[in-house]
Amino acid sequence: MKPLILVMHGPNLNLLGQREPEIYGRTTLADINAGLEARAQAAGFAFEAVQSNAEAVLVERAQAAMTDRTAFIIINPAAFTHTSIALRDALAAAGKPFIEVHLSNVHAREPFRRHSYLSDLAQGVVCGLGAFGYRAALDFAIESLQQQQAG
Ligand SMILES: O=C(O)[C@@H]1C=C(O)[C@@H](O)[C@H](O)C1
Hints:
The chain has 151 residues and is α/β, with parallel strands linked by helices. Helices cover 38% and strands 19% of the residues. It has one domain (4-150): Dehydroquinase, class II (Rossmann fold, 3-Layer(aba) Sandwich). The chain is built from five helices and five strands; from the N terminus they run βααβαβαββα. Helix 2 packs parallel to helix 5 (132-150) and helix 3 (55-64) packs parallel to helix 4.
């Protein structure tokens, strides 16, 4: 079975393309996922993308990563970044490496967006690069996994 790269998108990201495009851009979530999937599969990895507006759905998917073939997680927790100890704990329990992505530069926005419950557990954080941030995170994940495979 191929190692899985799991991409997780939090609440309201299903609205990308229509939602405040001046902040979040005009690329739809479907287009973001399609580009990531093609890139991950071309590199020889399985790919899964999940988006949910429900914290429990994301918590339970992160929990499942503890025992499934997930090798790397890329997560934009969206608003749950700033609120969810539950999602933090699930990612910690999963024990898989992850990169935190934000389309916008959260440090240039409202003060409440500058705190993340996840960042200190992450391999790294990408923010402010729009959809490209997901690509950067994926390229890092692929590079890391390929180095791991090379031994
Ligand atoms: O920039 C983003 O992708 C994040 C997306 C959201 O929906 C916000 O709640 C976060 O604060 C920022």
